[in-house]
Amino acid sequence: AEIAQITLDGPAASGKSSAAKGLAKELNAYFVNTGDMYRALTSVVIAKGIDPETQADAVEAILPEQDIRYVSGEGLDLLLHINGELAEASQVRSPEVAAKVSLVAKIPAVRKWLVKRQREAAELGLIVMEGRDIGTVVFPEAKFKFYVSASPMVRAQRRLAQEGEVSEGATVEKVAAEIAKRDEMDMNRAVSPLKPAEDAVMVDTSDLSLEAVIAMMAERVK
Ligand code: C5P
């Protein structure tokens, strides 16, 4: 099979995960969510009692003992494993992890370590990969790149609707502030900041249904 990558990048809760998943299904491609890889590592960092803000060295030191990877499941499904065990959504998508993940993701050694695993996943075949630096750093040669965004209010409302990912009693304002803080960190870090690739197609999903976004992207690729 011809090996190729389709990349989706964009800020938190922009709808890129759902769009990437739908596009992959439409194209019979593999789907890789790289945010979950950063989140998986962050859950390990938290479990070990390491503060990523002040102990970047300690985070780097545990990397050689960690095994975070996507394993083939049924058909085109890929399953995220953390040290040999299936990652639970409650572990990876928790508010505690969301609060710390950008601190872990800005550590250069962490990025190098995970980017290597992300590039390995592309050996599977046609792949749709989403994250923050996929079109700019992981696969700069990709033929199809999308940068997915939405207005801050729309993103906060979408995130609020995702059960388990926000704290009890969270308001749309609080969620919007959490998202803005994470984006700020992701856009301003020294290594691989979030930004559109020069050749990315910009997709504003604020006023579009998920189906419309997927159809638009599939149209461009086909
Ligand atoms: O996509 P998601 O919001 O789950 O990503 C969680 C965090 O992981 C982001 O806020 C960012 O700090 C980090 N990330 C990254 N590079 C990627 C994907 C995610 O730095 N390619």
TrEMBL record:
Any GO BP: pyrimidine nucleotide metabolic process
Binding residues annotated for ATP, in chain numbering: G10, P11, A12, A13, S14, G15, K16, S17, S18
Cytidylate kinase domain sequence ranges: 6-222
Catalytic function, reaction form: CMP + ATP = CDP + ADP; dCMP + ATP = dCDP + ADP
EC number(s) reported in the record: 2.7.4.25
Coiled-coil portions: none
Database matches in InterPro entries: Cytidylate_kin (IPR003136), Cytidylate_kinase_dom (IPR011994), P-loop_NTPase (IPR027417)
Primary subcellular site in the record, as a coarse category: cytoplasm
GO molecular function: ATP binding; CMP kinase activity; dCMP kinase activity
Family of the protein in this entry: Belongs to the cytidylate kinase family. Type 1 subfamily.
Protein name: Cytidylate kinase
Naturally occurring in which organism (per UniProt): Lentisphaera araneosa HTCC2155
